[in-house]
Write a structure and sequence with these properties.
Layout (H helix, E strand, L loop, with lengths): L13 E3 L2 E2 L6 H9 L3 H18 L5 H11 L9
Antiparallel strand pairs: 1-2
Organism: Sedimentitalea arenosa
Protein name: DUF1289 domain-containing protein
InterPro entries: DUF1289
Length: about 80
């Protein structure tokens, strides 16, 4: 089983109050995710991000794109998807 992939979906445009229009992460959050080594921390980060997206709204395409990314990398889907 592969480790949890980055929630980034390669859009990287920060137009929603400093949040990426593709994944909702801020630049600091993207740096933080890259520093996470343990998979349980990476999964917890993605779970937090799913809640952040729900609170911010307008991230309807992300779950499908991220699910494809997980499938391609043979990684389990986060519980919130």
């Amino acid at each position: 089983m592969s480790k949890t992939p980055s929630p980034c979906i390669d859009v990287c445009k920060y137009k929603r109050g400093g949040h990426c229009i593709g994944c909702s992460m801020t630049r600091d959050q993207k740096s933080l995710f890259k520093s996470l080594k343990k998979d349980k921390h990476r999964r917890a980060f993605v779970d937090m991000l799913i809640k952040q997206q729900a609170a911010l709204g307008k991230f309807h395409a992300w779950p499908e794109i991220y699910a494809r990314k997980c499938k391609k990398k043979r990684a389990p889907l986060p519980g919130g998807l």
